[in-house]
Amino acid sequence: MNNESVDIYPVKGQCQCGQVTFSLKAAPKMVIACHCKECQKLSTSAFSITTIVEASNIEINGVLHDSSRVADSGSVNVGKFCPGCGNRIYQINPVAPEMIKFKAAGGLDNTSMIIPTMHVWTREKQTWFTIPEGVQQFEKQR
């Protein structure tokens, strides 16, 4: 994450169809690119971006539907998504609801602060993708 000016916050955004809106009130704690096969399926791309934010620093409006799965680590991930377009908005671990894994950062009106500072599950990454030099990387979940 770069040293973005606090002047950009709040940053507003929405899902693809506009039924769910959100406002990021402060800089994310962390921005992670996950290269696991599940995230490749979720994002229909080489990796997904997760911004870790404090629940108090994000406002989400609109009806959300739930899905849940147990990760390889044993952690439960509850995903919240828009019922209209299916965009995943965020995930939480029920034992740590104060931290949100915000998945819809690409829907923000300003994405300049969404720069991955860590890449995880790199053992499953697409061979053609090169992780920038100097960025933390882990073969599995950290």
Share of helix among residues?
A: under 10%
What portion of residues belong to β-strands? 35-45%
Report low-confidence residues grouped into runs of 5 or more. none
Mean pLDDT: 90
Give the SSE string.
EEEHEEEEEEEE
For the record, what CATH class applies?
Mainly Beta
Q: Would you tell me the structural class of the helices and strands? A: mainly beta
What can be said about the biggest beta sheet?
A: 8 strands, mixed
Strand order of the largest sheet: 6-7-8-9-4-3-10-11
Number of H- or I-type helical stretches: 1
Number of separate structural domains: 1
Care to count the β-strands?
11
CATH topology: Metal Binding Protein, Guanine Nucleotide Exchange Factor, Chain A
Radius of gyration, in angstroms, nearest whole number: 15 Å
Q: Quickly give the CATH architecture.
A: Beta Complex
Distance between the termini: 18 Å
